[in-house]
Q: What sequence folds into this?
């Protein structure tokens, strides 16, 4: 069950559009962490996975907070799509032109789901392998949404189907995603970095590679590491809380520990989308949570 709508069901069916209650937002107290981000105010948003109302609430809060701040930046850590009920609405919020007017910078990073989507609709030898992998981790929910939006119930997954459902502006954004953002002593990346490799080498891996210890996919080797990253701090998503705790041993993955901060709240699995406001020397969490 998709928990970003699970509490909104009454008789086993999804509510009509517009009838879903808005999620609530909780803002934590400021917490110390040795971030050095060149004086910027950075809003980093973790995995969304189709929880569009949650993303809308977070963006509105960040837009309000950013008023009067000349150095505000939004970084989307990836995995906007799949699993949840409203991936197309999520992409519309993510690509909205007003974001570029409201913040000094907007950075949109590759998540492994966006990576597999764009490989799947490509025309090279990776398409079939990527499509098979993507279908095994929830990609079918997004394909079903594309078909429903276009009224093409049996349409194959193609770039034309994506264009018809999402629009050219969104597809153009999806074609221009970044692997990471490096500001001061902090790297923002979807999955993490391989502690056995120089960070610059790790982050230089092409977006077309997937699986293993790639920056969009790495989990256990990154999360279990306790030896630091040569003074680099890492803000990431990709691993939901229960899996993160199992791999890292942390009771709360949303606390800065061992030079990393995870912002994956579980989204469609838990009804929670987590973001953070990060400034020099401190951060606070912004948590959008499904309401009953």
A:
């Amino acid at each position: 069950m998709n928990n970003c709508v699970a509490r909104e069901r009454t008789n086993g069916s999804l509510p009509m559009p517009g009838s879903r209650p808005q999620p609530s937002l909780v803002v934590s107290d400021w917490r110390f962490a040795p971030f050095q981000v060149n004086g910027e105010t950075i809003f980093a948003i973790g995995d969304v996975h189709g929880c569009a109302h949650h993303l809308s609430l977070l963006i509105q809060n960040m837009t309000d907070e950013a008023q009067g701040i000349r150095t505000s930046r939004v970084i989307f850590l990836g995995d906007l799509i799949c699993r949840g009920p409203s991936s197309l609405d999520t992409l519309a919020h993510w690509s909205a032109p007003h974001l570029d007017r409201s913040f000094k910078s907007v950075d949109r990073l590759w998540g492994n789901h966006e990576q597999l989507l764009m490989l799947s609709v490509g025309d090279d030898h990776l398409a079939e392998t990527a499509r098979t992998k993507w279908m095994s981790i929830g990609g079918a929910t997004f394909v079903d949404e594309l078909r429903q939006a276009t009224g093409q119930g049996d349409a194959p997954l193609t770039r034309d189907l994506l264009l018809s459902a999402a629009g050219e502006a969104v597809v153009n954004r999806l074609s221009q995603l970044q692997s990471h953002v490096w500001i001061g002593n902090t790297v923002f990346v979807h999955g993490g970095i391989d502690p056995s490799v120089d960070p610059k080498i790790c982050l230089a891996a092409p977006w077309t590679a997937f699986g293993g210890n790639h920056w969009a996919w790495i989990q256990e080797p990154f999360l279990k590491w306790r030896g630091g990253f040569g003074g680099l701090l890492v803000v990431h998503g990709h691993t939901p809380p229960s899996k993160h705790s199992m791999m890292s041993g942390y009771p709360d993955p949303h606390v800065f520990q061992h030079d990393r901060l995870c912002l994956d709240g579980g989204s469609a699995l838990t009804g929670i989308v987590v973001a953070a406001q990060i400034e020099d020397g401190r951060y606070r969490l912004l948590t959008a949570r499904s309401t009953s």
Q: What stands out?
A: The CA atoms of residues 193 and 200 lie 9 Å apart. The domain at 3-7+23-53+68-109+180-289 is CATH 3.60.21 (Purple Acid Phosphatase; chain A, domain 2).
